[in-house]
Amino acid sequence: MSGAGIAPEARLGNDIARQFAHLAPNRAAEAIAVHLETFWDPSMRRRLEALVAAGDDSLDPLLVDAAGRLATHASRAEPDAQP
Amino acid sequence: MTATAGQSIWDPEVDFGTPAVRAADTVSVTIDGHQVDVPAGTSVLRAATEAGVTIPKLCATDSLKAFGSCRMCLVEVDGAKGVPASCTTPCADGMVVSTQTDTVRDLRRNVMELYLSDHPEDCDGCARGNCEIQALAVQVDAAEVRYGRPETRADVAHPQPIDLSNPYFAFDDSACIVCSRCVRACADIQGTFALTVEGRGFDSKISAGGTDFMSSECVSCGACVQACPTSALQEKSVVALGMPTRSVETTCAYCGVGCSFRADVQGEGDDSRVVRMVPSKNGGANEGHSCVKGRFAYGYAAHKDRQLSPMVRDTIDDEWREVSWDEAIATVADGFKALQAEHGVGSIGGISSSRCTNEEVYVVQKLVRAAFGNNNIDTCARVCHSPTGYGLKQTFGTSAGTQDFKSVEKTDVVLLIGANPTDAHPVFASRMKRRLREGARLIVADPRRIDLVRSPHVEAAFHLPVLPGSNVAFVNAMAHVIVTEGLHDEEFVRARCEDAEEYLAFIADPVHSPEATVDITGIPPEDLRAAARLFGEAGNAAIYYGLGVTEHSQGSTMVMGMANLAMVTGNIGRDGVGVNPLRGQNNVQGSCDMGSFPHEFPGYRHVSQDDVRAIYEDLWGKTLDPQPGLRIPNMFDSALAGTFRGVYIQGEDIAQSDPNTQHVEAALRAMDLVVVQDLFLNETARFAHVFLPGTSFLEKDGTFTNAERRINRVRPVFASKVGRDEWDITCAIGRAMGYDMSYAHPSEIMDEIAATTPTFAGVSFARLDEVGSMQWPVYDDSSTGTPIMHIGEFVRGKGRLIETVFVPTTERSTRRFPLILTTGRILSQYNVGAQTRRTANNTWHPEDVLEIHPADAEVRGIATGDLVDLSSRVGSTTLRAMVSERMPPGVVYTTFHHPVTGANVVTTENSDWATNCPEYKVTAVQVGVANQRGDAAVAQAREPVETHA
Ligand code: SF4
Ligand code: SF4
Ligand code: FES
């Protein structure tokens, strides 16, 4: 079960992170960040960053890494890394 | 042509007697002095009709292979002996045919007299003018019958009561001439084999398997009714109302097959009424066939439950108040503006509908992007085929199926995954079954033993009962076998794909083997290997799939996995192959094409693309947001967080159709302004503050795009019953919010779509009226569309092989919830049932039932017909059980057509990782004998819904 009680951005972000977990951590985090930039509304990205800042322990470490890269990304037309 | 093309006086389609022949060579024949060139193999009967010469016929019709039994169509051929039947005689070059010699006239008259000798003089059809017998009798000069003629239907040789058991058509044996057109239509066109000819000679009669139609195998497709030359098989609506006076060519508004129909109508203007819907022979998707929904279940459009006036209320606990259109639109516009002033531009959004036309959907996304000023636009495709869009875009470069429906006629092996076409896409299923009867092989991958696994004259080579949630492991295992056994198409992979080396190494890893994954997939490895070999060795192998693929936590990954499988076997870019989504709703493809996703403009172009945004900014005169907006589930979450406060919902019942009903209802309750535009006061309207009445497909003027990317015209049979068109209502909201969006006619909306979307550049109402339909991409006015995509090159250049790692869903059976629930559809009902439940289709499916394996039923003390409680971690509901070996142990199944059952009360918030398409196909549940509360709910569910036939 994923979900009950955790923030939507954590639940949805963790679902994405799990799909990239087979990649090397750096590549995985980059791919997750690109996916979030391509498909997530900015308000959701900001809420995710706030969860990271608050040290939410429900977040997948890869998601935390990806969230840290969001600010450096411009919005993307296409994801360029896939699971 | 104008937008009213397709309307005419009533004029039945010409019946050429035998099907058209596709052949490169032509032959030239002379018939009664008229010379005509036809493709080699064309029958003399057809050639004559094409030359304008009418040859009498009874057992032949152009939807069926010639049978040659009635001997009405006899002709003489110069230099040949005897009088051959023209329906079974192929034209030969230089042939000279005479159709009106004394010899053939005499013979025809004799035959006709025999038919008339048992055809009652009081035949209703003859009186009504839709029994061919009367007209033929005059044509062949057999008005007088030497053997006498029964005066009434009671006087025929073997009088039978009229079979009225089917709600939509009647069978009057006394008018039947046993031409067997119905039997052949049921077998050859529909593929159901419900009818037979019983007895011999004069005693022969048509039988629905020895019982009445309703108790037989009949699925009420109407093919036999259409084929019948007399009024023996007749629509009850024609019996009640009489013959039509005009017809309008339009498109069915149910499933993604997108069948073309002629609406046969009586009256003009507001007095117009539909007498019947008849499938069009020229329909590109259906070529003259139909199913029970499109053919008969149109009565909802005139149902008394339709709400025809706009209504408003201050809170959802208040009574509705009917208001003028101006007041309703002002309430919406003022409310949305106030919310944005207080909570920000992003605090409102819109949801477009796959039931609406492309033009209606386009203006909703324009309203959101240009007037609301954000990208908070999503569509109900979110909950069905969004993973198709994502997966096919990533791998092939565009978010659509690769083939036309006709392509299946060239397929040697069909791999059908998570789809049940005989119920959900029946007209395509008939096409597929025809190909299977011709010898194509079928692999069914589905937890449930669907009808196609074994039905008359069709038997799947393999049924692979893939466990819910394990699709990716399954498709990887298929590719693993093909690659490790050297069955892949190395040349195709080398020339047309990228990332091939990495993918081939990935998929060859033994972790993907059928043996290593058997505990995940539940498929015996030897079966999976044999199925993979069958697929890999096929000349043309095609994948067809449905929501059993997309509605999973790895729906998008699975779509990419199937694309991989097609690419490694070289099954892309020609007839007979491809990756083919069977879309649920009539305009799912179109609503996605029209920019209904929060990250994409029309034509699947990301909102961050500066050049694309510039096109719309120039035309619309607004600066547009370069960031994606909220998806439907994000809207719900944001509503509960207090940041999303108002929504405009076009024709979608999210409170019933979306997962985790309690969560959806809480989100709707949390909003300040919910605007629902629909035909009926649906479940979502319980939470609405403004209700805007919508129009049915019989009132719409526009286009739908079906699952094969075919853009079909939808034409109004009568004017909007609510006084306004839906696209115009949307535009009025924009104008009231201070953004001028105006069109004089929906054709102007399509012109704007064409001007801004390269794949639609050559599309216009005028061109569609001229050529019938076109499959996008239509890059310019010289193109009539693209039936098969990715020939020679993928849209994205090279096809991309993507490593599809299996990641199990987090939804697992537990001790508390030990069974897995999966969901589906049934033929006679459609989605949440808002339309079909308001028709006589309820006769077939009055309630949703839970299918459960005998072993699971036995340990719970459950028998067929028992009321059971179905509960998951989020909710519970009550419905009736049906013990069935169609289900594997551990998996239960239900449909979601009836609101009282509320299957979505138990489905969870889990979704596809990439698109958030809900994981409807996997919910851990428990089932037990029901308590009292459940009894009450089911009693309520069983209340008959008043229907219009
Ligand atoms: S309605 Fe369709 S299924 Fe039923 S008997 Fe006629 S052709 Fe067969
Ligand atoms: S197959 Fe689909 S489109 Fe065709 S008549 Fe039936 S519901 Fe309508
Ligand atoms: S129409 Fe040719 S034999 Fe019946």
What do you see in this structure?
The complex is a heterodimer of chains A (83) and B (949). Chain A is 59% helix and 0% strand. The two termini of chain A are 22 Å apart. With 949 residues, chain B is α/β, with parallel strands linked by helices. Among the domains of chain B are: 262 residues, Rossmann fold (3-Layer(aba) Sandwich), CATH 3.40.50.740; 196 residues, 3-Layer(aba) Sandwich (Dimethylsulfoxide Reductase, domain 2), CATH 3.40.228; 122 residues, Barwin-like endoglucanases (Beta Barrel). In chain B, the strands form 11 sheets. Chain B has a 7-stranded mixed sheet with strand order 14-13-29-28-27-15-16, sandwiched between helices. A 6-stranded mixed sheet of chain B has the order 35-37-36-39-34-38. The chains are: A mainly alpha (83), B alpha/beta (949). At the A-B interface, helix 1, helix 2 and helix 3 of A face helix 23 of B. One iron/sulfur cluster binds next to helix 5 and helix 6 of chain B.
What is the element layout, followed by pairings?
The complex is a heterodimer of chains A (83) and B (949).
Chain A: H1 8-20, H2 25-39, H3 42-53, H4 61-69
Helix pairs in contact in A: 1-2, 2-4
Chain B: E1 7-9, E2 26-31, E3 34-39, H1 44-50, E4 76-77, E5 96-98, H2 102-116, H3 124-128, H4 132-139, E6 169-171, H5 181-190, E7 196-198, E8 205-207, H6 223-227, E9 233-235, H7 236-241, E10 246-251, E11 260-266, E12 273-279, H8 292-296, E13 311-312, E14 321-322, H9 325-343, E15 348-352, H10 358-372, E16 377-379, H11 386-395, E17 413-417, H12 421-424, H13 426-437, E18 441-445, E19 454-455, E20 458-459, E21 462-464, H14 471-484, H15 490-496, E22 497-498, H16 500-508, H17 518-521, H18 525-537, E23 541-545, H19 547-550, H20 555-568, E24 579-581, H21 588-593, E25 600-601, E26 605-606, H22 610-620, H23 632-641, E27 646-650, H24 654-657, H25 661-670, E28 673-678, E29 690-693, E30 702-705, E31 710-714, H26 726-736, H27 746-756, H28 765-771, E32 773-775, E33 799-800, E34 819-824, E35 849-852, H29 854-860, E36 867-871, E37 876-883, E38 891-895, E39 923-929, H30 932-941
Helix pairs in contact in B: 9-26, 10-26, 10-27, 11-20, 14-18, 14-20, 23-25
